[in-house]
Amino acid sequence: MGVLPLDVVRNRIDVPDVPIPEGRMVDLPGRGGSTYVTDTAGPSPDSPTVVLLHALGCTGLLTWFPAIEPLSERFRVVTLDLRWHGQGIRSEEFSLVDCADDVAALIGLLGLEDVIVAGYSMGSIVAQRVWRQHPDCLQGLVLAASTDRFQRTPYERFFFAGMGATMLATRELSRSRSAVRAARAAAERVDLEPTDIQAWALREFRSTSPWAVGQALAALGRHHSRPWLGRIDVPTAVVVNTRDRVVPTARQYALARAIPGATVHEVEDGHAACVLGAERFVPGFLEAVATVNARRRDLRRR
């Protein structure tokens, strides 16, 4: 459910060499902390906004940096680091519900209107929950490499049960002041002024701890949105990676069928397509966002 395979961490695969937007730490009132946000202007002050939510074990920029510049030709583009990822909020535990509340808080804080929330893998699960918890703050959804739940096979149920037990045993670690201080210090050591794109990607990848990934995995194992997917009432597009071995392609298609009127946009690549297959993923993703935006405008005219 993450994006970058081990080969990237070992510096054996090139990542796209594109501009990296500058960001800033933003305090989210009432949410218990600050997170790292980038806000890239669109072609005009009234451009619709795309809020991008990242994959497991990554950051907002690390998942989405190849797509931001082309998206900004038509949209204002916002990214943030979700809880315990990169420079995201450090809380007592990782919660998808809290992540969705954080996204809604940022949308309100920035005064965003005409918002499309787009998520990749874990980010797509958070995007689903943004609609579920705050349906009035968004006008469209784009779900990439997504599913309604993960515990479908005996192996998956065994894996997530073990992950849940492990995370319960280490839960007190997240409440330790020393652990929180150490995590924040690690994030502060990440240099966000890259001179080399691959070195930058490596620093971003290392800014999320293995403990945080385990916490998030356990939370993903508890996700189950099928009972309410059929009530999603905003234009929705599903980007299907047709060679995905992490989120099986059949589940991605099934998700699209469960959402009324959802369109399907195929990308012939695997689970790391948003970065390592950017030349294929970005055009398909742009098509999905444009489709949702066109449907959003049509609904607004009625």
How would you characterize the overall build of this protein?
The protein has 302 residues and is α/β, with parallel strands linked by helices. The protein has one domain: Rossmann fold (3-Layer(aba) Sandwich), CATH 3.40.50. The chain contains 13 helices and eight strands. It has helices spanning 6-9, 60-71, 96-109, 122-133, 154-169, 171-175, 177-188, 197-206, 210-221, 226-229, 249-258, 273-276, 278-301, and strands spanning 23-28, 33-40, 49-53, 76-80, 115-120, 140-144, 236-241, 263-267. It has an eight-stranded mixed β-sheet, sandwiched between helices. Helix 2 (60-71) packs across helix 13 (278-301), helix 3 (96-109) crosses helix 4 and helix 5 packs across helix 9. The protein starts with 5 loop residues before the first helix and ends with a helix. Residues 6-12 and 162-194 have low confidence and may be disordered. This is AB hydrolase-1 domain-containing protein. It comes from Nocardioides panacisoli. Residues 48-276 form the AB hydrolase-1 domain. Pfam families: Abhydrolase_1.
